[in-house]
Write a structure and sequence with these properties.
The protein is an alpha/beta fold and 441 residues long. The protein is built from 22 helices and seven strands. A seven-stranded mixed β-sheet has the order 2-3-1-4-5-6-7, with helices on both faces. A hairpin with a 7-residue loop joins strand 6 (269-273) and strand 7 (281-283). 37% of the residues are buried. Mean pLDDT is 80; it is low at 358-364 and 432-441.
Length: 441
């Protein structure tokens, strides 16, 4: 996420820190690099100009120039201006009003509307709501089937339209039947096109006028950069939108859409999609995103992810096992599964301050394939072998390799790493593990 922009900004500020005292030229040279980095990240050029002007005005103030740490002051100004550029504070869905509250999702084909509808349904369930999925896209093949599959996966009700129902009628009937279906929130998955056309806009205008949704959200593909911003502006002008959901942000190495969309069209980014799974939806926090962009990490989001994944009782049991040196391969597998629920290891490490700057770490992070291999190896062991790897002789290792679709070398590597980890834990045995436990809780 924003990898290219982060690297360029980190390099610029590292050079800035090399000066004990900053001159006006030092600051202007640094801001010239920041301007180029933002433009290369596909940020709207008007937004870049306003951003640089604002930062320069504050960075050349007497308070910064006379400071003992002027470079840090400039970085703080850039951080604060990035936060302001993206909206200042996190904004939430408007779920007030008489139920059922309708949420209308709009966007072009391929932006991820249907999957986002499923992610939003899961999020709303966690908030104690009772969502209903409504497929209002009667044009895309299998769109209704896809939403029905998400409905079954999430165990939430879905409205199944009749053969001759128009999109407007589907939405209206779903609202009328919501109370009978036990729902208080309706997610309307409308049709998209490969491009903007009059027919699409008229259909969306008709649905919005008929339903009067509490939230009209535009779903944009973050990887399309300024195209996403321009399309969002067109939807806002012709239909009107209350907020934006940026999808595929985990694959966006530039960040142009995230940094431009609020300033260009004046509506907030509410959520970001950071993966394909249904739990890969995050509330958009401008301050946390600014910290990530500047390579400062995002510990608050990391802690929230850990709190969602790790059970307090489970963490306490793990602490006891670690204290007694009873951490088995079975425990390792269970912890690995929990950690993977938080996202990829690279994303997790990217949230830890300073880790993004450790380029050597990237090559050491195992990919999903390696983690799958580790889990397959442990699953192919007997319970006795998981609890006591010392009994793994050559024949047992060959059997495990055949059962897991791996090699004996893979098994040897896992056992070696496990043994080294246990030796490290033994040396740490006298230390207090409560800090780890509190973090996981």
């Amino acid at each position: 996420m924003f990898e290219g922009l982060t690297e360029k900004l980190e390099r610029t500020f590292k050079n800035l820190r090399g000066f004990g005292k900053l001159s006006e030229k030092n600051i202007q040279d640094a801001l010239r690099e920041v301007r180029l980095a933002l433009l290369e990240a596909d940020v709207n050029f008007r937004v870049v100009r306003q951003f640089i002007d604002s930062v320069q005005q504050k960075a050349l103030g007497q308070e910064v120039m006379d400071s003992l740490t002027p470079a840090q002051q400039v970085i703080k100004i850039v951080h604060d201006e990035l936060v302001a550029l993206m909206g200042g504070t996190a904004e939430r869905l408007n779920l007030s009003g008489r139920p059922p509250v309708s949420i209308m999702l709009m966007g072009l084909q391929g932006s991820g509307k249907t999957t986002t509808a499923g992610k939003l349904a899961r999020y709303l369930m966690q908030q104690g709501r009772h969502p209903i999925l409504v497929p209002a896209d009667i044009y895309r093949p299998a769109a209704i089937d896809q939403l029905a599959a998400l409905s079954a996966q999430l165990n939430v009700p879905a409205y199944i339209p009749g053969d001759k129902e128009t999109p407007e009628k589907i939405c209206r009937n779903a609202v009328e039947q919501a109370s009978r279906m036990g729902g208080d929130t309706i997610l309307l998955d409308t049709a998209g096109r490969l491009h903007i056309d009059d027919t699409l806009m008229m259909e969306l205008q008709s649905i919005k006028k008929s339903i009067r949704p509490g939230n009209t959200l535009f779903v944009a593909d973050a990887m399309s950069g300024q195209d996403a911003v321009n399309v969002a502006a067109s939807f806002h002008e012709q239909v009107g939108i209350d907020g934006v959901i940026l999808t595929k942000l985990d694959g966006d190495a530039r960040g142009g859409a995230a940094l431009s969309i609020r300033a260009v069209i004046g509506v907030p980014i509410l959520f970001v999609g950071v993966g394909e799974k249904l739990d890969a939806l995050e509330i958009f926090h401008p301050d946390r995103m600014a910290s990530r962009i500047l390579g400062m990490g995002d510990m608050l989001s990391l802690i929230e992810k850990a709190q969602d994944v790790f059970d307090k009782k489970q963490a306490q049991q793990m602490e006891k096992k670690l204290r007694k040196m009873q951490f088995t391969l079975e425990d390792f597998r269970d912890q690995l599964r929990q950690i993977r629920k938080m996202g990829s290891l690279e994303d997790i490490l990217g949230m830890i301050p300073g880790m993004g700057k450790m380029k050597g770490m990237r090559g050491m992070i195992p990919g999903e394939g390696e983690l799958n291999k580790v889990e397959a190896i442990i699953n192919s062991m007997t319970i006795k072998e998981r609890h006591n790897p010392q009994i793994l002789n050559a024949s047992r290792r060959r059997r495990i390799a055949m059962g897991s679709g791996t090699t004996v070398q893979d098994i040897n590597r896992l056992i070696k790493n496990y043994t080294q980890s246990m030796k490290l834990l033994k040396r740490m045995r006298q230390k207090n593990f409560r800090g780890m436990n509190k973090f996981l809780m």
